[in-house]
Structure formats: structure tokens, C-alpha cells
Amino acid sequence: xxxxxxxxxxxxxxxxxxxxxxxxxxxxxxxxxxxxxxxxxxxxxxxxxxxxxxxxxxxxxxxxxxxxxxxxxxxxxxxxxxxxxxxxxxxxxxxxxxxxxxxxxxxxxxxxxxxxxxxxxxxxxxxxxxxxxxxxxxxxxxxxxxxxxxxxxxxxxxxxxxxxxxxxxxxxxxxxxxxxxxxxxxxxxxxxxxxxxxxxxxxxxxxxxxxxxxxxxxxxxxxxxxxxxxxxxxxxxxxxxxxx
Length: 244
Ligand code: URA
Fold this sequence. Notes:
Layout: E1 6-8, H1 9-15, H2 21-29, E2 33-35, E3 38-39, E4 46-48, H3 53-56, E5 57-59, E6 62-63, E7 71-76, E8 107-108, E9 116-123, H4 126-133, E10 141-147, H5 155-160, E11 177-182, E12 185-190, H6 197-203, E13 209-217, E14 220-221, E15 231-233, H7 236-241
Helix pairs in contact: 1-2
Bound molecules: uracil.
Uracil binds at residues 112-113, 116, 196-199, 212.
């Protein structure tokens, strides 16, 4: 049976962005932290790190943030960058400010361009991140693509051929499936995540992508009910559905 990991309360809360270990010590001394409804008095107390801690521990009466091992689903708004240090609006600014100081840190699983919207995952689980983005896993990404000009009829065969070579690259793209919605709109399924991949695929056909929205990642869909900028944590089942 796997052993439950434990941590000193000051170390744990500091790694979750609640402040320095000194600051946590002050919070404990001030009686601001409770565990199972009892005020915590010992900053050196080792706490078992289990997901239910988020319900059992409270700080100033507020439930603790989720412990490490989280996956966040965000409906990425237009104009936001998937970077920790770019100038301008970053996707991380959509999450609680404290979460930017977590260790392990939260990163996006792959990236969407600034002008791309839709399903974006973020996690502090490095193994999961690598599994999802690994080309060997063939996790299908579905994009709704709006085009500046009508399709010319060659796209489907070209994208499916496994021979399309993007500019400045020497390895052809894996086959991609395309479903036509209208003459200027398609759903495109790709299994890789190369730089500006979808935009460059259509540029190779003489077209231009005007709107790009990711709707699906593996078996996980972005719910219609989630408005741009909205986010929530994924359940274990939803995380597993990515690989289905
Ligand atoms: N392909 C692109 O060109 N941009 C994205 O953001 C995602 C896929």
C-alpha cells in the first residue's frame, strides 16, 4: 500500500503560496489555522497530505486550496498568453493570485497562441504534463478553424497524407483528419502540437486562419456552459478521459 506523504504545516502552506514559513508561523501563533475544527498550535506538526485536507483545514475560516496534484480546465480567452513571463495578459492571471507562488508550480499543458481560444489545461503534475503532450500518446486535439477564404478542395488529402512538410521543418506532419462544416469552417483533429501548427497547415494551402478554438483534447470536451475565462478543477475521471 502506498504510504501517505506528510509535511510540516509551515512547509506545506508556504509551498501552496500562503506566505513564507515565518509568515505561516505567525498565522499559527495567531490561531488563524484550524484542522478538523481544532485550532492548530504547533507549526512543526506533520500533516498527512491527502486530497481531503482541502476540506479539513481552514485558514481564517476559509477552506484550504487544493493540495498538489491538480489539473485545471480553462476556457482560454482571446488575447492571453500561455507564458509565465511575457508582457501583457497571461493565462495564469485567471487563477487565484496565491497560486502563482505554488511549488511545484502550475504550468499549461502545451500552449495555445495568444489569438487561440478554448480548452486549455494547467497542472502542477509534471508527469501528467509530459504524458499529454508526448506525440507517442497520440492524444487527439480538435480545433474549430475559421478561414479567411473558402477551402480549395486539396486540404483533406494533403492533411491526411502524412507527407505535409511545414516551412523550416524536416519531419512531415502526422496525418490529421478534417471535417468540413462550411466552405470557410472546419473541425481539424491533430495529434501533434507543433509551433503554430494549425495556422501553418492552412498557410501551406494558401489560406489564412481567422479564428481558432480548441474544443476537445482526447476524450475531454470543453463544456458549452463554460464562458471564456472560466476555469474549474478536473476530477480523476475527467483526467483519465483525456487518454481515452
Ligand atoms: N495550432 C495553432 O496554430 N495555434 C494554436 O494555438 C494551436 C494549434
